[in-house]
Amino acid sequence: MGVLSCTKVGLFSVIIALFALYYKRQFVIDLEREIPKILESLKKAEQNVELNSALKVAIGFGGCMDIFVDAISFFDKMKMNPSSIIQHHDTIRNEEELNEGFLYYFTHGAAGERYVNNFTLFSEMVAAAEQIPSYRKVVGGNAPVIANRLALEGADILLASTGATDFTTKLHKRIKLAGSVVDTSDIHLILEYKSGEKWGDHVSPRANRYIAIADKYNPTISSLESFVDEYEKFDADLYVVGGLQVMDNYDFKSGERSARLSALNSLMLDIRHKNKPIHFEMASFVEELLLEDVVKYVLPQSDSLGMNEQELPNLISFLKHGNVTMVSEAYPRTAHVLDLMRSLYTEVSKIKAVGENLPKAGSRIHVHTLAFQAIITRKGSLWKNTMAAAAHASLTANRHICGKEDVDINTSKMLMDESFSTTVDKTQADRVQFSSQEPVSCWEEMIAGDTVLVCVAPNLVCTKVFQTAGGGDNISAAGLRFQV
User: Fold this and answer.
1) Less crowded by CB within 10 Å, the N or C end of the chain?
2) Are the beta carbons of 432 and 422 closer than 8 angstroms?
3) Which of 68, 150, 175, 84 is nearest to 468 (CA)?
4) CA 148, 215, 180 angle in degrees (round to 5)?
5) Distant-in-sequence, close-in-space partners of 294: CB < 8 Å, separation ≥ 6
6) Counting Cβ atoms within 10 Å, is residue 275 exposed (0-12), middle (13-18) or buried (19+)?
7) Which of 386, 391, 408 is nearest to 399 (CA)?
8) What's the pLDDT at 451?
9) Contact 416/458 with Cβ under 8 angstroms?
10) Are the C-beta atoms of residues 293 and 254 closer than 8 Å to each other?
11) What pTM was computed for the model?
12) Bridge partners, residue 314, by sequence
C-alpha cells in the first residue's frame, strides 16, 4: 500500500510539473503574440510626453571614426585561426593577444574594448577590415554618438571632440564642435558577431562586439580646454561626460592622467554649482587604477549614471571590493539587476561630493540590458517622465540595433518572462505581472534613506541585427531626452 501511494504521489507530481511546463509554454507563446499590443503601448507611452523643444546639451569627450566589420570575416582576412587559449589581456601587443582576448569576450557574449599598443599591428588590422566588402565607416565614440542621437531628437548640442573632416562633416547640423580639426581622426575597429555565431569550436551566446582602438587624441581629453572656453556661453540644460574608458592602459606620463581627470573634476564641480545636472556614461573599464581615479574625480559630481549589464557589476565590485570583473552574465535576471542597482545607489550615496550645498550624487541610474530597461530616479530630484523615458529607451534599442526607425514585429522578440521578482530576497520580493496594455512597470521604494521611483520596461529584442556598437549610447541618450 505504501509503495502504491508513493507511486500515485509521484505520478501526480509529474502530471502537475508537465501541466506547469505546458502552461508556461502557452503563456510565452501568447506573450509573443502580444508583441503588436506591447509595441503600441510603448509607443503611446513615449508619445504621451511634452518634450523641452529648446533643450541644450553639452557633451564630452572625444570622438573617432568607427569601422564596423564582421568579426569572423575580419579574422579570415587576417589569416588567423582561433587560438586554443582563451585569455583576457589588458592591452593588445601582438596577434596572439588579439586572438586570445577576442575569444575571451566572444565566448562570454560580452562587449569588450581594448587598446592596441602596437601601431603596426593596428594599421594592418584597419587595412584588413577595409578590404572586406561589407565594412562600414561612421562617426563613433560615446560623446558623438550620444550627441547625434540627442540632435536627431531636437536638442542643440555643444560637443567636445577632436577629429578630421571625415568626422566633422558627418555630425548632425545641430551640433557645434568645441575642439580642434586635425589631419587624421582616431579610429575604432568594431568587430561584430551574431548570437550563436561560430569561430572554430567556439560559439557566442549572444550578439555583441569587440572594439580595438589605438587613439592618439582621446585618452588625454584633448578637447577639454576648448570645451571650458565655450560651455558657459552655451549655457546647457544638461551635461554629459563619457569616453573615459579610452584612458584604460594608455601610456601616460607619470601623474598625467590624474591631472587631466582633476581638471575635468574642476569643470564638473563648477557646472554643479550652477545647479545643472551631469550624466556620466560608463563603459568597459579593466584598469583598477583608472577606476580609482574615476571614482575619485567623476562619480562624486555625477547626478546620473548610465551603463549596461556588464558594466554594472564591474563598478559595484570595484566600489565594494576594490577589484574589477571582466565579464558577467549575458542574460541576467531582472531581480538580480534591480538588486545590483540598489547596491550601486547605496554605494554612490556614500561618496561625498567636494563642495558645499551640493546634492548627493547618483539621483538617477539607468541600466540598459538586452532584455529590458531599468531606471531609478530619486523622488524630489529634477528627473521627470521616468516611465516614458524607459519606454522610449526600449524602442530606441530596437530601432538602433535593427537599423530601422519603424519597429518590425516580425524581427522582434521578448526575452522577459510573464512576470518578474523585484528582488532575489524572497522575504522582501514582490511579483510583478506583465501587462501588454501597460508594459512599463513602475513603483516607489526606499533605498539608502531616499524615496525612489523604479521603472522597468521590456525590450522588443531585434532578431535581425544591423549593429550593436553604439547601442548603449543611443539608448542612454534617448532616456535622458525625456527626463530633462
Assistant:
1) N
2) yes
3) 68
4) 60
5) 244, 261, 285
6) exposed
7) 408
8) 98
9) yes
10) no
11) 0.88
12) none
Helix pair angle (35-47, 2-33), 10° resolution: 50
Position 430 scores a pLDDT of 93
Buried b / exposed e over 367-406, threshold 16 CB at 10 Å, is bbbbbbbbbbbbeebbbebbbbbbbbbbbbbbbbbbeeee
By the 10 Å C-beta count (0-12 exposed, 13-18 middle, 19+ buried), 437 is classed as exposed
Cβ 64 vs Cβ 189: under 8 Å: no
Task: Tell me what the mean pLDDT of segment 45-67 comes to.
Answer: 94
Task: For residues 100 and 407, give the distance between their C-alpha atoms in angstroms, rounded to a whole number.
Answer: 37
Residue linked to cell 555625477: 302
Contact (CB, 8 A) for 311 and 282: yes
**Residue 364 three-state SS:** strand
Query: Which residue in the block uniquely carries the three cell numbers 540627442?
Result: 150
Using the predicted structure, report yes or no on whether residue 6 has a pLDDT greater than 60: no
Percent of the chain scoring above 90 in pLDDT: 83
Q: Which three cell numbers stand for residue 351?
A: 561618496
Helix, strand, coil % over all residues of the chain, rounded to 5? 40, 20, 35
* Spatial contact of 456 and 390, defined as CB atoms under 8 Å apart: yes
| CB distance 49 to 448 below 8 Å | no
Mean pLDDT of the chain: 91
Element (H, E) at 224: helix 224-234
With vertex at residue 195, the alpha carbon angle to CA 191 and CA 201, rounded to the nearest 5 degrees, is 80
Least confident of 27-36, 105-114, 155-164, 179-188: 27-36
Please give the average per-residue pLDDT across 451-478, as a whole number: 94
As a whole number of angstroms, the distance between CA 49 and CA 458 comes to 19
Among candidates 268, 42, 243, 269, which has minimal Cα distance to 147?
Answer: 243
The mean pLDDT of 10-29, rounded to a whole number, is 49
Please compute the mean of the pLDDT values over residues 287-303 and round it to a whole number.
95
| CA distance linking residue 147 with residue 473, whole number of Å | 9
Residue with cell 582616431: 186
CA–CA separation, 27 and 9 (whole Å): 27
What tens digit of pLDDT does each residue of 340-373 get? 999 999 999 988 755 567 888 999 999 999 999 9
For residues 292-312, average pLDDT:
95
